[in-house]
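<goal> How does this chain fold?
<body> The protein record starts here
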Amino acid sequence: MDAEPEVLDELRRLRTRIPQLTGALAASVDGLVLAQDTAGVEPEGVAALTAAALGVAIRLADATGQGDFRELLVRGVHGYVATYAAGRGAVLTLLAEDRVNVGRLHLEGRRASSRIGELIDEAAPRAEPPRARTARTATDTTARSAPLRTRTARTPASPRSAANARTTTES
């Protein structure tokens, strides 16, 4: 990727602006590392896990009618993992200490992901050259209008299993 040095510079500037960041990486939506500034974690593993979480986040946003994916925040006992959309085919993942100002994390993460997305989109070759428009038949347009969706029928939970189900919010 031609933009790797510029993306790495942006990651380093981001870590300077937010001292509580412990890592930053840009990855493709398929889980390939594009640039990284991390210590103490395996960037390839984080990128792969980010791709998996991204898939779930996209489906959740779609299923609930929230629109296109923008960001994902995970809070653990020792800190945060924040993932932001970066252009057409990449994401920015930030690792931060628990004491980070989450508002500042979002502000800087959104700005950086926008810049990184521009860099990556400019450097990426067009996957498909523009095609000349041709007339379509009615069957062509209806067959491609929307993907088919299937849902599995759910059986209601028995009263006993619902009574035994417990959740906890202790921290």
User: Anything to note?
Assistant: Residues 127-169 have pLDDT under 50 and may be disordered.
